[in-house]
Amino acid sequence: MDLTIRNVSKTYANGKQALRNVSLTIPPGMYGLLGPNGAGKSTLMRILAGLQQPDAGEISLGDIDVRRQKEALRRTLGYLPQEFGVYPKSTAEDLLDYFAMLEGIARRADRRQVVEALLRQTNLWEVRRQKLGGFSGGMKQRFGVAVALLGNPRLMIVDEPTAGLDPAERVRFLNLLSELGEQSVVLLSTHIVEDVAELCTRMAIINQGEILLEGEPLREVAEL
Ligand code: ADP
Ligand code: ADP
Q1: How are beta strands 202-207 and 210-215 bridged, if at all?
Q2: 22 has which bridge partners?
Q3: What is d(CA 74, CA 66) in angstroms, rounded to the nearest whole number?
Q4: What's the alpha-carbon Rg for the chain, to the nearest Å?
Q5: Quick one: pLDDT band at residue 189, thresholds 50, 70, 90?
Q6: What pTM was estimated for this model as a whole?
Q7: Would you say 46 and 54 are in contact if contact means Cβ atoms under 8 Å apart?
Q8: Would the CA dihedral through 37, 40, 44, 46 be positive or negative?
Q9: ABC transporter domain location, by residue (predicted)?
Q10: ipTM exceeding cut-off 0.90 for this assembly
Q11: Alpha carbon distance 205, 215 (integer Å)
Q12: Does ligand 1 come within 6 angstroms of the Cβ of 10?
């Protein structure tokens, strides 16, 4: 099941053209979207997540028309924004339980199972009773992944996840993402060359709203 992007363009109200005729076919696995700040990555990610409308173009995920079938998209998509907003006074366990309830898991015992599995998968089990306000950037990001995974997404969109993480957290987070890449399409936006070179099976480079290059990342890129 591919994510297919055809001729997507977006100009903001201030006249800034953020995306110019972007076309990409993204297969299952880890896919990197690499580009400098201001290249248009977040704009594309928000459009793919159905949070923003493009001016033109078509996007499909398998047989879902992303621009029109919002409900079907919501059920197959996990979106981790650049800054995952958390409720600082809530514990990881309580908030995840709450999101699981919103996801429609009505029985408390069922939620407990799901919540435990996700907290273990994201390496947050030990800190489940701590308040989110005290979490480090990396812990918040991993909590964001746990929330995004609640709906068993077939497409996971992750926007600049390693910005602001310390090296140990970065490695831990990227390992978590690569596990997810074994089950679904994971689209990773980043300005860090190594994130893509180390993890992704395919990549595209975006600059000033245009795709410059698409293909397999050269391992040598990591040496740059
Ligand atoms: P990236 O995520 O690669 O840093 P963005 O998609 O955030 O790039 O931004 C692409 C361009 O569009 C930048 O020049 C940015 O300043 C501009 N931009 C982003 N969001 C808006 C907005 N809401 N209104 C106007 N311009 C915007
Ligand atoms: P990024 O790190 O993705 O480039 P920014 O820090 O540029 O993100 O933007 C953060 C928020 O501000 C986004 O919601 C974006 O849409 C908005 N934004 C960015 N550039 C502009 C702009 N020139 N005018 C209005 N809003 C903007």
Answers
A1: antiparallel
A2: 8
A3: 9
A4: 17
A5: very high
A6: 0.86
A7: no
A8: positive
A9: 3-224
A10: no
A11: 9
A12: no
Reading the block at residue 74, the tokens are 């919501």
Q: Residue with the nearest Cα to atom 3 of ligand 2?
A: 42
Q: Which tens digits make up the pLDDT trace of 90-115?
A: 999 999 999 999 889 999 999 999 99
Q: Is the CB of 41 under 6 A from ligand 1?
A: yes
Ligand closest to the CA atom of residue 16:
1
**Ligand whose nearest atom lies closest to the CA of 38:** 1
Full 3-state SS string of the chain? CCEEEEEEEEECCCCCEEEEEEEEEECCEEEEEECCCCCCHHHHHHHHCCCCCCCEEEEEECCEECCCCHHHHHHHEEEECCCCCCCCCCEHHHHHHHHHHHCCCCCHHHHHHHHHHHHHHCCCHHHCCCEHHHCCHHHHHHHHHHHHHCCCCCEEEEECCCCCCCHHHHHHHHHHHHHHCCCCEEEEEECCHHHHHHHCCEEEEEECCEEEEEECCCHHHHHC
Residue of the CA atom closest to atom 7 of ligand 1: 42
Distance CA 211, CA 209 (A): 7
How many C-beta atoms lie closer than 10 Å to residue 192's C-beta? 16
